[in-house]
C-alpha cells in the first residue's frame, strides 16, 4: 500500500469507526431529515446530554456532522447528504440478508416436509 493510499484508507476508516456505535448511528439517522439540539437527541437516544455531546464530538471530528449556534443552543445536522444514502445502502443490505435467510428457511421447511 502506498503512503497516500494508506492515508486515504485511514481517513475512511475513521468515518466508519465513528459510525460504528449504535447510538451514533441512531443520531445520524435522526439528523437525515432535520437538525436537532443536544437536548432533543438526548431524549431520542435515551442517554444523558454529556454522553450525547461526546457522541456528537466524535461525529464532528470525523466530519460527519456540523453544528451551528443559536443563542445558547447548538444545533447539529449532517455535514453531507450522502451519509443518508450510505445508511439507506446499509439498510438495503440488511433487507437482502433477511429476505435471503427467509427464503432459505422456507426451502428448509419445505424439504423437511417432503
Q: Topology, pairings included?
A:
Blueprint: H1 3-18, H2 22-30, E1 36-37, H3 38-45, H4 49-61, E2 65-70, E3 73-78, H5 82-113
Antiparallel strand pairs: 1-3, 2-3
Helix pairs in contact: 3-4
Helix content: 55-70%
Structural class: alpha+beta
The total of helices stands at 5
Q: Order of SSEs, N→C? A: HHEHHEEH
Name of the CATH architecture of the largest domain: Orthogonal Bundle
Looking at the structure, the CATH topology of the largest domain is: Arc Repressor Mutant, subunit A
Strand order of the largest sheet: 1-3-2
How many beta-strand elements?
A: 3
Largest sheet: 3 strands, antiparallel
CATH structural class of the largest domain? Mainly Alpha
Question: Any overview of this molecule?
Answer:
There is one protein chain. The chain has helices at 3-18, 22-30, 38-45, 49-61, 82-113; strands at 36-37, 65-70, 73-78. By secondary structure, it is α+β, with helices and mostly antiparallel strands. It has 2 domains: 1-79, Winged helix-like DNA-binding domain superfamily/Winged helix DNA-binding domain (Arc Repressor Mutant, subunit A), CATH 1.10.10.10; 81-114. Strands 1-3-2 form a 3-stranded antiparallel beta sheet. Strand 2 (65-70) and strand 3 form a beta hairpin. Helix 3 packs across helix 4 (49-61). The longest helix has 32 residues, at 82-113. It is extended. The model has no long low-confidence stretch (mean pLDDT 89).
Amino acid at each position: 500500500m502506498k503512503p497516500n493510499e494508506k492515508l486515504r484508507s485511514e481517513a475512511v476508516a475513521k468515518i466508519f469507526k465513528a459510525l460504528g456505535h449504535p447510538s451514533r448511528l441512531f443520531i445520524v439517522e435522526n439528523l437525515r431529515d432535520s437538525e436537532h439540539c443536544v437536548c432533543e437527541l438526548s431524549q431520542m437516544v435515551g442517554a444523558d446530554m454529556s454522553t450525547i455531546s461526546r457522541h456528537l464530538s466524535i461525529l464532528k471530528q470525523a466530519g460527519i456532522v456540523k453544528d451551528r449556534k443559536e443563542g445558547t443552543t447548538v444545533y447539529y445536522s449532517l455535514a453531507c447528504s450522502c451519509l443518508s444514502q450510505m445508511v439507506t445502502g446499509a439498510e438495503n443490505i440488511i433487507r437482502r440478508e433477511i429476505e435471503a435467510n427467509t427464503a432459505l428457511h422456507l426451502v428448509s421447511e419445505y424439504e423437511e416436509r417432503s
